[in-house]
Every structure is written in structure tokens, then in C-alpha cells.
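seq:
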Amino acid sequence: LEAGFSEMRNELQSRDALWRRIQLECQQLHTELLKIREYKDMQEIQIKHQSSCVQLTEQLENKNAELLLLAQSQEHQREELNKIRNHLYREEQSHCSEQERMKTEISDLTEELHQKEITIATIMKKASLLERQLKMELEIKDKLLAKQQLLDFRYKVIKSENTHLKEMV
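struct:
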């Protein structure tokens, strides 16, 4: 996209330079035209130089035709230049809009990522808390199991003593 802008700017500069050359040629032709008119006026005074006057008139007509063609070309160049400027403006606007859309999207994604990071941190804290609770419950159950086993053992011992005492009685 940047290369397209650069190419359009280069073409615009090239056309501006051509436009300036055409204007300079128009000024030179106009100066020549004035000189030719002065020369023609001098020739009209000097009748003996009528043939050169005809030639100057033809040159003047040719120069006028050239000026007319240059003016038409100049107008065409101006129209082309305006088209290129308008196209460049639209491209720049489109590029700016795309950049703004991308900035907004990046901002939204960044916010979403931040929210997910907060959620992950919260889950990690809860998981750590649950893990500690689970360890505490396991310790309590292990203690209760040990007490249960001790009580079972005592029960068996007492039962065995009872059975023994019953036999003795």
C-alpha cells in the first residue's frame, strides 16, 4: 500500500513538472508570438519584405495552433492530476480507516487478554486454596483412619480378652 502511495506521488510530481514545462513553453511561445507580431508590423511598413511577412504569418498560425494544442494538453494534464489527487486522497482515507480499525481490534484483544489473565490468576488462587483444603482434609482423614485402626485394634484386643475370660469362667 505504501509502495502504491509512493508510485502515485512520483507520478503526481512528474505530471506537475510536465505542467510547469508546458506553462514555460506557453510563456516562451507567447513571447515569440509578441516578437513575431512586432516583426510583422515592421514588415508591413517595409513592403519590400512581404514574402517574409507571409512566412511569419504562417509561423504565427502554426504557433497559435501549437498553443491551442498545448492548452488542450494542459487541461487534460490538469484533469489527470486532479484524478490522481482524488484517488490518492481516497487511498489515504481508506488506509487511515483500516489503521483505526486495527487499533480498535488490537485494543479489544488486549482487553480480552487482560481479562483472561485475571480469570486465570483467580482460578490459580482458587486451585491453590482448594489444594490446601484438600491436603488438610487428607491429613484429618489420615488421623481419623489411624484412630479408627487403633480403636479396631483395641476392640480386637478387648474382644480377645473377653473371649479368653469367658473361656476361663
